Amino acid sequence: MEEGDLFADVKEIEIDCAKCENDRIKHKAEVLSRKESRGKIIIEFICRDCGSKGTLTFYKKSRTELLEYPPD
Ligand SMILES: [Zn+2]
Fold it and tell me: Residue 5's Cα: distance from chain center in Å?
């Protein structure tokens, strides 16, 4: 898989959802959109378990992920 195609065809991701009551397990989230900009991929998702929307930013270089949720 090419770096640039990371998450390209992914319809579902697994996240450590901060909004779910049980934060010890991975939660499945539906991918709503996928954007790429300078060395990072930004995925909008909706958690299948709690219905929260958020964004996952994946930094290609460090291969780290950042989860963010809009304020309530
Ligand atoms: Zn959740």
Answer: 15
Distance 17 CA to ligand 1 centre (A): 5
CA of 27 to the centre of ligand 1 (A): 6
- pTM for this one? 0.84
Which stretches of the chain score pLDDT less than 70?
Answer: 1-4, 23
Q: Does residue 42 contact residue 32 with C-beta atoms inside 8 Å?
A: no
- Are the beta carbons of 7 and 34 closer than 8 angstroms? yes
| Burial of residue 15, with CB atoms counted within 10 A of its CB: 0-12 exposed, 13-18 middle, 19 or more buried | buried
Which residues on neighbouring strands pair with residue 25, listed in sequence order? Answer: none
